[in-house]
Specification:
globular; 73% helix; 0% strand; mainly alpha; 263 residues
Length: 263
């Protein structure tokens, strides 16, 4: 049985590539897996210090410092996942050039494995958030389980983006230099450190179509507001994710025959 041209063996191949990516990224350093925890933890701490203590961007309705940290973390976690997945997948074919040129296998699994590396900051960020909830006098509710389909949608979207970026970067290496700038622009163009209500009315309406906003807001709705996310937003993001995955995979397969000549 195949789905999108993938079979059961490809699942195991993707899993092994994912483990290899984690080993090369984290076990190759002296800190090892500790760095996998420290990196997102340090970023979350840094952003909290700068925007919470130095710039004092605490929104209206947030009653305590811990509540503010939870509010900020709930917005930063999906962004860290987004940033990690984008940066890792964009370069994944180039870093695995030896595999592509010397081994016969389904290269479509490489971007998937690269995107799945973003599970690490996701898990670390959620653990910190769930630890803070009881400290702020809140207890996780069953509503938290709604994060599961939202996370799945998020990774479907990111895999689709990963196919576009990885295939394009093979032929245009300078493209990799632009990606950090784009992710940074999206960070500040999305209501993560501020609320959507503080934006000009026209821009706030356009923000609905920002995919990163549709990743961030459901986390805040569930974790902070304890409510079901906007169904129209989820529908839009779900349709966009499936379309992007389908078109991205088609684009990747159109170009994959030329990878060996360029890598």
């Amino acid at each position: 049985m195949q789905f999108f041209g993938f079979c059961t063996n490809d699942i195991f191949l993707t899993y092994n590539l994912w483990k290899m990516n984690l080993r090369d990224r984290y076990l190759g350093s002296r800190l090892g897996l500790i760095w996998a925890i420290l990196q997102p933890a340090l970023l979350l701490t840094l952003y909290t210090f700068v925007f919470g203590i130095v710039l004092k961007t605490q929104p209206v309705g947030i009653s305590s410092p811990v509540a503010y940290i939870i509010w900020l973390f709930s917005g930063l976690i999906p962004y860290l996942v987004f940033s990690e997945a984008i940066s890792t997948s964009a370069n994944c074919l180039i870093t695995n050039a030896a595999l592509i040129k010397n081994i016969m296998f389904k290269s479509e699994t490489i971007p998937i494995a690269a995107v799945l590396c973003a599970i690490i900051p996701l898990v670390v960020g959620l653990i910190f958030t769930f630890v803070l909830l009881p400290i702020d006098g809140q207890m996780p509710e069953l509503l938290i389980l709604l994060l599961i389909p939202i996370i799945i949608l998020q990774f479907i979207f990111l895999i689709g983006v990963g196919y576009f970026l990885s295939a394009t970067a093979v032929f245009f290496r300078d493209f990799l230099q632009v990606i950090p700038t784009i992710t940074m622009i999206l960070l500040f163009a999305t209501p993560i450190f501020y609320t959507k209500e503080s934006m000009p009315a026209i821009i706030a309406k356009i923000t609905f179509f920002n995919p990163l906003y549709q990743m961030v807001q459901p986390y805040r709705d569930i974790i902070v507001s304890h409510q079901v996310p906007d169904l129209y937003g989820l529908l839009y993001f779900g349709i966009l994710s499936v379309i992007l995955l389908t078109v991205g995979l088609f684009y990747f397969r159109k170009l994959k025959g030329y990878f060996e000549m360029v890598l």
